[in-house]
Specification:
binds tetrahydrodeoxyuridine; 130 residues; Cytidine Deaminase, domain 2; 25% strand; alpha+beta
Length: 130
């Protein structure tokens, strides 16, 4: 899939963000190896720590539908510059992809990063057996 289309889908789902506290809308569109897209927005909670980021919403939706292999994720917000994924989301993305393109958009312009570049030395499954 063309990354511009993935960015558009991230902007579309960003409108659904439930953000009464931060008013900071985020949208994500996750591309599977087979070409399917799962979208997600951030969902906040009065108990702030229970908030779920847009990226994890997309991943959890996909994994709960049986998906395990991802090739790219587009992330957008309403800020003037690109929005980088938080540390927890980088860790969760790393759980399911060694290599993945992370597409960060500002308007319809976007930059493509490698997940390994954003999350070097991630804690991995293999650590559990060392
Ligand atoms: N947020 C995301 O959805 N993704 C990120 O990677 C950064 C932060 C959300 C969480 C919260 O709802 C709001 O942005 C402000 O932190």
């Amino acid at each position: 899939m063309e990354y511009g289309k993935l960015v558009e889908m991230a902007y579309e789902v960003m409108e659904n963000a439930y953000v009464p506290y931060s008013k900071f809308n985020v949208g994500a569109a996750l591309l599977t190896k087979s070409g399917k897209v799962y979208t997600g927005c951030n969902v906040e909670c009065a108990s702030y720590g229970a908030t779920n980021c847009a990226e994890r919403t997309a991943i959890f939706k996909a994994v709960s539908e049986g998906e395990r292999e991802f090739t790219a994720i587009a992330i957008v917000s309403r800020t003037r510059d690109i929005t980088f994924p938080c540390g927890i989301c980088r860790q969760v993305l790393s759980e399911f992809a060694d290599e993945m393109d992370v597409i960060l958009a500002k308007g319809m312009e976007y930059k493509v990063y490698k997940l390994t570049e954003l999350m070097p030395y991630a804690f991995e499954k293999s650590e559990l057996n060392k």
